[in-house]
Write a structure and sequence with these properties.
Elements lengths: L1 E2 L2 E2 L5 E4 L5 E5 L6 E9 L3 E11 L25 H18 L6 E2 L13 E9 L4 E5 L19 H4 L2 H9 L9 E6 L4 E6 L6 H14 L1 E6 L7 E4 L6 E4 L5 E4 L12 H12 L6 E5 L7 H5 L4 E6 L2 H13 L5 E5 L17 E4 L7 H5 L8 E6 L2 H14 L3 E8 L9 E7 L6
Length: 431
């Protein structure tokens, strides 16, 4: 039995043995006294899971999901959503302090739906011969086994409330042992399932897939090989996936695209970015890591010109299509590897405003060479506090920008993922 002192950045309770060695305990909160079971022993620390909460924290709540302490998809359901977002802000503040960064102001945390919010997911599939049952879901915490779940509270209800029906259908297939995963993509009106299969699916099984489509109105795709092999089978008419953006724009995407996960938070995030960017009709905005145009399109209706840059050529082509079909004639797109900065690239020009929305690796190369863009204002959207703070330190300590404001966004409620947005400004252009 130990007393938990605080919470790690992965959402695990931190406690210590009498000899000082650290224990990371899943499903434990600060100030709780817990009984625990070791799951891994290491030289520097041990890992464990709480087996009994002897003295609970006043912040502890009852998780909504009945497999919460088994499934690895969520780690914070035992903490109220308002406490989760406060914790994430504390984590970000701690990292800022470590690199001597202090914002002028903190933005109010952004929160939206906390249940049924997830529009994109990859679900594992596994046939368990001893039970003659197919499992569908996320991996167990700290394990490669699939969680035996009948529903998922964070997945969009069109899938999350029908896991049992999907499992029953898959169990009835003759090829049930050769289906390793299902990709889920939900837009404003459709739910698409991409079924990966390692052997051809016979006609009798296709009829069962059609019955699932007929009942739940899923758009069903098959993937026999690589991404290029993905094809829609039900319904027979092609279905286009779309989601709405602020400023009357929308995004068309393919179910395998890196699209937004949380549709309820996305418009709030875009609106905040637009307020911080404050683009004027005579200004040029550079949108790096622009993806499908999630920020590019709303910005284009406010600015003179937007330059979007993305490393994935296929995504950039769809970004171009999104702009052209909606009549935007003030957007210029480029494909480029933004992790290997090229000062000769056609977009390496002075701009008024810069938006950065990189993946978890961050935008170190861009921030190091910020002189080529010399923006007076930068908005940085991040999905990883460590790389965000590293890049902010480059802009502030090496290039003279001021960290005006920063705040967290609950893009992934009930998980330890921290999304954030920062505004940096500089009075004069860099030389």
């Amino acid at each position: 039995m130990v007393k938990v002192k605080n919470l790690s950045h992965e959402g695990r309770g931190i406690a210590h043995y009498e000899n000082g060695k650290t224990i990371f305990i899943r499903n434990a909160l600060p100030e709780e006294t817990v009984e625990f079971q070791l799951t891994k022993k290491r030289r520097q620390f041990d890992e464990a899971k709480a087996t009994e909460i002897v003295e609970p924290s006043p912040l502890r709540i009852t998780p909504k999901c009945n497999v919460f302490n088994i499934c690895g998809g969520c780690s914070l359901q035992h903490l109220a959503p308002e406490s989760q977002i406060a914790l994430k802000q504390d984590w970000l503040a701690e990292k800022l302090t470590q690199l001597k960064l202090e914002p002028q102001t903190w933005l109010a945390p952004l929160q939206a739906k906390v249940w049924g919010y997830r529009h994109k997911a990859r679900l594992g599939v596994r046939y368990v011969r001893k039970r003659d049952e197919v499992l569908v879901g996320f991996r167990e915490a700290e394990s490669n086994f699939l969680t035996n779940m009948g529903r998922c509270e964070v997945l969009h209800p069109s899938v999350g409330e029908h896991i049992d029906e999907i499992k029953t259908m898959l169990t009835s297939l003759t090829v049930r042992e050769t289906i390793p995963q299902i990709e889920v993509a939900v837009d404003d009106t459709h739910t698409a399932l991409i079924i990966r299969h390692l052997e051809p699916i016979p006609g009798t099984d296709l009829e069962k897939l059609k019955a699932l489509h007929d009942k739940l109105q899923y758009v069903v795709f098959l993937q026999p090989k690589g991404l290029d092999s993905i094809h829609q089978i039900f319904p027979t008419e092609p279905v286009s996936l779309n989601y709405q953006l602020p400023n009357q724009a929308h995004i068309h995407f393919k179910p395998t695209d890196f699209a937004q996960v949380n549709f309820s938070l996305n418009p709030l995030m875009i609106q905040q970015a637009l307020q911080l960017l404050n683009p004027q009709k005579d200004e040029t905005v550079l949108d790096l890591f622009c993806g499908l145009g999630n920020f590019t399109l709303p910005i284009a209706s406010l600015a003179k010109k937007v330059i979007g840059v993305e490393g994935d050529a296929a995504m950039l082509n769809r970004a171009k299509d999104n702009a052209e079909t909606q009549g935007f004639d003030n957007i210029e797109y480029h494909t480029a590897n933004l992790f290997d900065f090229d000062e000769q690239a056609p977009f390496s020009i002075k701009v008024d405003i810069l938006l950065l929305d990189p993946p978890r690796a961050g935008a170190e190369a861009v921030c190091t060479q910020i002189k080529y863009f010399a923006p007076k204002r930068i908005v940085y959207v991040s999905c990883d506090p460590s790389t965000l703070v590293r890049d902010l330190a480059i802009l502030v300590h090496q290039h003279g920008y001021t960290l005006q404001s920063i705040g967290v966004m609950d893009m992934f409620p009930h998980t330890s993922h921290v999304e954030s947005m920062a505004l940096l400004e500089k009075t004069d252009f860099l030389t």
